[in-house]
Design goal:
It is built from seven helices and seven strands; from the N terminus they run βαβαβαβαβαβααβ. It is an alpha/beta fold. It comes from Gloeothece citriformis (strain PCC 7424).
């Protein structure tokens, strides 16, 4: 029943085979979607090669650089979509950043520069990419982003990312309200802790995973594939009545008080 054949999907945030974005891309591909992939460019082209080699089996028809702090690259990426596809149906936003300063120490000690950069990349990028996606989603569409329970509750060593995720979740609601009349749905997935390149920057990530395994109703954490399955559902017609929501895929951890 879950069929994305004929749908064009842009996936951002793939870094390696542990990325949640990679799990999502695989499930979208399995459901029949035509994939476009962005990568974060660097001077030596290492990220480009790593991501290109990884996604090759998914046969993406678009592969473009996109540093979301660079307006020209955002415009170029969506310009390529307009030229090659003519329309966009799905946008997967898996982008987040906070440097070491924002993930440790006293929260009140975070610098203005670190705060601004983190919210620019982690939060505003969703708003900015939705702006460019809107005119391409001529037949409606689905925008899905990734968040974490640290956006609504205090999590040790999450600090600045908690604020960024809180802003991201509220952005989901405002974007859903704006874009709903265009039949564009916007939702977030709050995934349980998974060992990824991004999460490895969070101090005590393994302790967090073990804690979830002990406390969550399912007595385990979740996988990239499980998050990918939920994303595919949210991008399909099966979820046509769902927008502005944060869907928890965390083995039930969020419901527990102790």
């Amino acid at each position: 029943m879950l069929d994305l054949t004929g749908k064009n999907a842009l996936v951002t945030g793939i870094a390696n085979n542990r990325s949640i974005a990679w799990g999502i891309a695989q499930q979208l591909h399995q459901a029949g979607a035509n994939l476009g992939v962005t990568f974060l460019p660097d001077d030596k082209g290492r990220f480009e090669k790593k991501v290109r080699d990884l996604v090759e089996p998914l046969n993406p028809s678009i592969f473009v650089p996109c540093d979301v702090q660079n307006e020209e690259q955002i415009e170029s990426a969506f310009g390529t979509i307009a030229d090659m596809w003519g329309k966009l149906d799905i946008l997967i936003h898996c982008l987040a950043f906070a440097d070491k300063e924002g993930l440790s120490g006293e929260f009140s000690g975070i610098s203005r520069e670190a705060f601004t950069k983190s919210l620019d990349i982690s939060t505003y990028s969703l708003v900015r990419m939705a702006k460019s996606a809107k005119p391409l989603m001529k037949e409606g569409g689905s925008i899905v982003t990734l968040t974490y329970v640290g956006g609504v509750k205090v999590i040790p060593n999450y600090n600045l990312m908690g604020v960024a995720k809180a802003g991201l979740e509220m952005s989901v609601r405002y974007l859903a309200a704006e874009l709903g009349s265009h039949n564009i749905r916007v939702n977030g997935i709050s995934a349980g802790p998974i060992r990824t390149l991004a999460s490895s920057a969070v101090g005590g990530i393994l302790d967090m995973i073990h804690h979830v395994e002990q406390v969550a109703p399912l007595k385990r954490t979740v996988t990239q594939t499980e998050v990918g399955n939920t994303a595919a559902f949210l991008c399909s017609d099966l979820s046509s009545g769902i927008t502005g929501q944060i869907i928890y895929v965390d083995a039930g951890y969020e419901i527990m008080g102790m």
